[in-house]
Write a structure and sequence with these properties.
The complex is a heterodimer.
Chain A: E1 9-10, E2 13-14, E3 26-30, E4 38-44, E5 47-58, E6 71-78, H1 93-107, E7 118-128, H2 133-147, E8 156-164, E9 167-170, H3 174-179, E10 182-189, E11 194-197, E12 200-201, H4 205-238
Parallel strand pairs in A: 6-7
Antiparallel strand pairs in A: 1-2, 3-4, 4-5, 5-7, 8-9, 8-10, 10-11, 10-12
Helix pairs in contact in A: 1-2
Chain B: E1 5-6, E2 11-13, E3 23-26, E4 29-32, E5 36-40, E6 45-49, E7 61-70, E8 73-77, E9 84-87, H1 100-103, E10 109-117, E11 123-126, E12 133-135, E13 139-142, H2 148-152, H3 157-167, E14 169-172, E15 177-181, H4 184-199, H5 206-232
Parallel strand pairs in B: 9-11
Antiparallel strand pairs in B: 1-5, 2-4, 3-4, 5-6, 7-8, 7-10, 8-9, 10-11, 10-12, 13-15, 14-15
Helix pairs in contact in B: 4-5
Classes of the chains: A alpha+beta, B alpha+beta.
């Protein structure tokens, strides 16, 4: 564990050299898992996240089925080796909470009413953690859902804002998260509808609105990267034949 | 090219009457609900998804596998999140409920039709239609159901091509299962071709491409025969 630094921001630069409104590096890889219906591997700074989506599929036990809509199941899990100290494998108080808020972030974005009685399973595995894994997990899950062909109102993009040295900053890294004054993870759709918002620490009302504004900028940037990743995946997979890949009307279904 | 691919939430039209499959209406706009290819028709604008599961609809012809025999019903796997139910009365002949397994047992494959789907997604199947039957020979391959229309082609052009060029019998189920029957060589070639179509779905001029693919395959197929003839000479 590192010590609390004396200053988080020196000459407008943060501990890792970023400006206050700058995100960490994001790398996205789609469909790394062949077995899953949709999957996404995401690196966000030093966070490494794997997301897999299965479904819609039959839900067991049957008493949990909903006759009018699909049930979204979200499982957030950290690998034992994802942090410096080994963490005990399995569900913890924290992972149950993150799974719950993650599920809530998607339940009203996915068109669950199209698939009554089924389950849409989302699995988030954190392979390496460095603050902001719940937001990174939501971003990865959103892409994995799109990859699985699941209908939804839009992609969900997430990022955290926080307060260090009395200043509002975007996308906290480990030390800022541990020793900062506030941490506010936010997820929203491209239209700016918030699907997830938590706050750890204290902010004044004005600071909060400033943070929200900054989060919107951050989420927009993430959205652009997500969008780009999906378009690139298509171009790579289908257009490498050297010809323009354009859609055609669906053929008559009958033989 | 970028114009054609859309992701969920993209605005695809401002005429809400144009909203087709794979889209939804938000306020006065039509937006894409799935990740896929935009298909602008005269009356509807739709998005063809790149992935997804088969969701049964009435009158769909599908290929099913019996998974369970229960009292007066067969439970059928139709490659979908929902299981199909084939009632004893929907079997072509009148049979006794005591020896259902005599006619259809677990693991048997059937070419069946979705008779009805209710709000609770109870899928009722039937065998009492023309063409529908129990499949006792041949092989079944499964492809992504979203790619199935390409194997059939416009007005069945692709499937006609496959049948005539390869010389085998085929049936493409709406659920992504394809039944192929013929000699072993024909079936192997047909499976390869189907996989080729699946990999190259969403490309332009697919029928021509498949023709070229089959021609190239034909050379290797009959190449050996020609060689042996040369040896004799």
């Amino acid at each position: 564990m590192s010590e609390k630094p004396e200053h988080f921001i020196v000459d407008g630069k943060r501990l890792d050299g970023r400006r206050v409104d700058e995100l960490r590096q994001i790398k996205i890889e789609l469909s790394p898992l062949g077995r899953a219906d949709g999957s996404c591997y995401l690196e966000w700074g030093r966070n490494k996240i794997m997301a897999a989506v299965y479904g819609p599929r039959e839900l067991h036990p049957r008493h949990r089925q909903n006759m009018t809509k699909a049930v979204v199941q979200y499982r957030y899990n950290m690998a034992a080796f994802s942090v410096d100290d080994r963490i005990r494998p399995g569900h913890s108080r924290r992972s149950i909470e993150i799974s719950k808020v993650g599920r809530d972030a998607f339940e009203h974005v996915v068109f669950t009413k199209f698939f009554p009685k089924t389950a849409i399973d989302i699995f988030i595995e954190v392979l390496q953690a460095d603050a902001g894994t719940r937001t990174a997990g939501i971003n990865a899950a959103s892409l994995a859902l799109a990859d699985a062909g699941i209908p939804m109102r839009g992609l969900v993009s997430a990022c955290a804002v926080g307060k260090v040295d009395g200043e509002i900053v975007l996308d906290l890294m480990k030390d800022e998260d541990n020793f900062g004054e506030a941490d506010v993870p936010i997820a929203m759709t491209a239209g700016g509808k918030i699907t997830h918002l938590q706050m750890d620490g204290n902010l004044t009302r004005d600071e909060f609105y400033e943070a929200l504004k900054l989060a919107k900028i951050g989420c927009d940037k993430v959205y652009k990267l997500q969008r780009q990743a999906l378009i690139e995946k298509y171009n790579k997979e289908y257009a490498e034949n050297g010809e323009d890949a354009i859609p055609r009307p669906e053929g008559d279904a009958d033989e | 090219m970028e114009r054609n691919i859309v992701i969920p939430g993209d605005v695809v039209s401002d005429n809400i009457k144009m909203s087709g499959s794979g889209t939804y209406v938000h306020g006065s706009e039509v937006r894409a609900s799935v990740y896929g290819l935009l298909n602008t028709g005269e009356r509807y604008i739709s998005v063809i998804p790149l992935a997804g599961k088969y969701i049964p609809h009435a009158t769909d012809r599908v290929i099913g596998i019996i998974t369970e025999v229960v009292y007066s019903n067969w439970i059928v796997d139709i490659n979908s999140p929902y299981e199909g139910l084939l009632h004893i009365s929907q079997y072509p002949r009148r049979i006794d409920s005591e020896n259902m397994s005599k006619y259809l047992k677990v693991g048997d494959c059937i070419l069946t039709m979705v008779a009805s789907v209710d709000a609770g997604m109870k899928v009722e199947l039937t065998l009492r239609e023309k063409e529908l039957r129990v499949l006792s020979n041949g092989r079944i391959v499964t492809i992504n159901p979203t790619k199935m229309p390409r194997v059939i082609g416009r007005n069945g052009s692709m499937i006609r091509l496959l049948k005539s060029e390869i010389g085998c019998n085929m049936f493409v189920g709406q659920n992504g299962r394809i039944w192929i029957n013929g000699s072993d060589d024909c079936i192997d070639l047909a499976i390869q071709t189907v996989r080729y179509i699946e990999d190259n779905a969403h490309t332009l001029g697919l029928t021509e491409r498949v023709q070229a693919f089959l021609k190239a395959k034909e050379k290797t197929r009959y190449g050996k025969v020609h060689e042996s003839r040369n040896d004799e000479e």
